[in-house]
Amino acid sequence: MNHQNIGVLSASETVGNSGMADESTMMACGKDAENIRDLFLKDDSSALARLYDLLGGKIFGMAVVTLRSKAEAEDIVHDVFVLVARNKNAVAEAHDIPSYIMRMARNLVMDRLRSAGAGRRAEAGYADLLKAREGENDVDPSELERLGKAIEFLPADQREVLMLKVFNGMTFEAIAALTDVSINTAAGRYRYALEKLAKLLKMKAGAAAA
User: Fold this and answer.
1) Could you tell me the residue range of the domain that residue 174 belongs to?
2) Which of 117, 150, 181 is the last residue of a domain?
3) What's CA 75's distance to the chain center, in Å?
4) What's the gap between Cα 208 and its chain centre?
5) Which residues of the chain have pLDDT under 50?
6) If 8 and its partner were Cys, which of 3, 73, 115, 160 is the partner (CB 3.0–4.6 Å)?
7) Based on the domain organization, do 73 and 143 belong to the same domain?
8) Model pTM greater than 0.90?
9) Is residue 177 part of a domain?
10) pLDDT tens digit sequence for 13-72
11) 133, 200: one domain
């Protein structure tokens, strides 16, 4: 399977070569966050809408790959911005507003998973998420199905990093801040996930051919 077809990067990718596009995106995000901070400090009514434009999609993407439910992910986005509206001063005082909000969202996601317990059933499989991400791209649905099933067998920490990177397009730095690990740990989990996926897919292909 060609992992590039679904946006998965090469296993040889390192933190240092993640690309100028990531750096430019982060710089733009930082500038927007500082503008939003000023709006919150001025109690400007447009601050919340600007923050939603900046982070709403990222929060949804992070939530949907973990909860595997669009409805629940939308609930998380709503709950996050309710909390932000109630705690404007804390948001304005945060050192890194995007990271602060994303961690807030992840805490809500983890709380929801814990409260649901082991009996919780996801609405969508990983193959469904990958298919939705690919849209009309020329990717064999059966390949995505096999990949989605293989992702189920990854350790939870590796699976989280893989999906945040692939589905949500997050940098290792952003993933590290979100999951409270070092950048090298986030990159290592991604690399191990790719290596394990390659082995799982090779095993499945061998079994199918037998």
Assistant:
1) 127-210
2) 117
3) 16
4) 32
5) 1-25, 27-28, 136
6) 3
7) no
8) no
9) yes
10) 433 444 433 444 454 466 777 888 888 888 888 889 999 998 999 999 899 888 888 889
11) yes
